[in-house]
DNA sequence: TATTGTTATACTCTATAACTATA
DNA sequence: TATAGTTATAGAGTATAACAATA
């Protein structure tokens, strides 16, 4: 199978539902026999349920899934170019600007002018950003644990 | 586990990527160790990849995933109230209006004034709508088959 | 001439409030 | 007064084109 970088985008997800029953494969709604077998439909509802759990979990620190992904990517691979990070997440470089502005304004990450190529910005966490990640790591662990439990058990 | 109706919404999904490598669990990008273990991230990318395949598959008949879901729901349970169908898909009734307008304008589905409660509209397929579903059923089967193959094999 | 980051803009999807007509 | 459908509108997320600075 291909291992080429996909360009799907990871943002979006709206709050509102209380239940993650979409994971319950025994919940064969009599109203959705066609849709219930649709993989994309199941995936979509599962994804939204997980994102909504994320949003509830991280509302206290005002962090969205996309922002989490960006911080996580910068933390893991500091110094990458702005466009590189955007591309890894399937975000257009034009749309990445405001996202990065926000993280920079909050003091969590920063752009540094490239020494060699002065057009590019390399991305780094600030000290505050590192602290922030440490601070939210427990929230993250709890969120993932909750999702795994709903899914039925354990990560393989 | 709860079997309450979830209110997550099924729309959204943007075109653009060529590969569904997000399904390849062996594709552990060295750049995403944190994200690669994030269930929501995996789900989001998988869902987008599936929706993009849907969009490519159904572009020829100009049908979006959400419209497909609505038609499928009306076909399965004709006569339901407009708000009932919207709620089953996690779509706000206000946003369902334009969606239904579109299907009605295309002659695929219709609203009928309720006899008892004249505020409500019951939803039905037209003859053309039934034909349309028959016409696209092969596209649907091919799409699902493609996704299942990418996922690694077979439906349990 | 090509690329990086940026701005501006349009389009889609989603959420809320308020209206109308019925109940 | 409450509900079904509708309208209007605001906010996200996403896509494209075009620009300045740099290569």
From TrEMBL, chains A, B:
Residues 36-156 form the HTH marR-type domain. SMART domains: HTH_MARR. PROSITE patterns: HTH_MARR_2 (PS50995). Pfam families: MarR (PF01047). It comes from the Bacteria. PANTHER family: MARR FAMILY REGULATORY PROTEIN, TRANSCRIPTIONAL REGULATOR, MARR FAMILY. This is MarR family winged helix-turn-helix transcriptional regulator. The lineage of its organism: Bacteria, Pseudomonadati, Pseudomonadota, Alphaproteobacteria, Hyphomicrobiales.
